[in-house]
Amino acid sequence: MSHIHVERREDAGELVDALAGAERIALDCEAAGFHRYSDRLCLVQITVDGATWTIDPLAFDPTDLLRDALESADLPIVMHGADFDLRLLSRDLGIRICGLQDTQIYAALLGEEGLGLASLLESRFGVELAKKYQRADWAERPLTKDMLEYAASDTMHLERLLDVLSEELDGMGRSTWATEECLALESVSATVTNEDGQPVDLVTRIKGVRHLPVREVAAIRTALSWRDDIARQRDRAVFRVIGDKPLIEAVGAHPRRVEDLLAIKGFPTGLARAEGKVLIRRLQAIRESDEADLIPYPKGIRRGPARPPPELEATIERLKAVRNSIAEQIGLPRGTLLSNAVLLEIARVNPLTLEDLVEVEAMRAWKIDLAGEALLGALRND
Q1: Which pLDDT score, from 0 to 100, does residue 50 have?
Q2: When comparing pLDDT for 187 and 345, which is higher?
């Protein structure tokens, strides 16, 4: 298969022509969140009729080249595990995909255990995808020829994979399930915006902080903010600046000198010498502040799934029994049929009819057809 790298608008003529005449498009994206502070869109891969393009959105804005094709409801867009990529395209290019056909969703609805693209291509076609650049820094420039070839391989086989999975799904009578799930994914991603207007309290990302005294919470928040500022300035992923463990350990050590930071295992020497004094000053300010002026752990925020209220636990167990039985009968993973979070929401809403059940988020028509009556029976404790 041919592969063309596009770094300038004037080199995109063949791509424009191909998109204009396309009957189907295979699409993938690369970001740099593993290495960079920003998870910005760094590369777009497109395959049309056997030809593949890798497009550099850091070199030029390709939005107007791609929008008509990717937002056309009549043009299928084949992707794999599209959730994050849809959000990137929506946020960074303002493009909201229509006509999504996600091969990961198709595989999940077949009951496949290995949902990764590499696993599916190997099981169906004996194709082995390289793993060398799985965690590459896609924001670095120039991208090497090997990196571009690796990226291009992600879309080269997608259409053939979709055809095989579609045939298998159709044979099982599950094609409409995939259509519903893909439409739902499109809808969720289309609501994503750049900023939701709500600042994120960094302490909510650290396990165990919610039960600490307010001064310790404030000190950890200050340390996390210090790290976040440095990560943003350097455009590095926060964990590449310093990991959670040595940073939290530094807070507990009440450092007064840079040497105190250097004594902490895992605290980078260069970071301590270059930025350590700032951290020490900020932590000192927290120690000297009036406790009434410090911000406690935010109320109403839990890290991880909430435990169901005791009065609902028996109902949840009945709903799980229904879900587990049906999932086993049709050969689907339990979470693919109905996640525990959805069951908890059903228990809380306590729908009385199938029409009420439709109002529960993530309850698609195919799930209601399969399990609706049994779930309502479990709620009534029949």
Answers
A1: 93
A2: 345
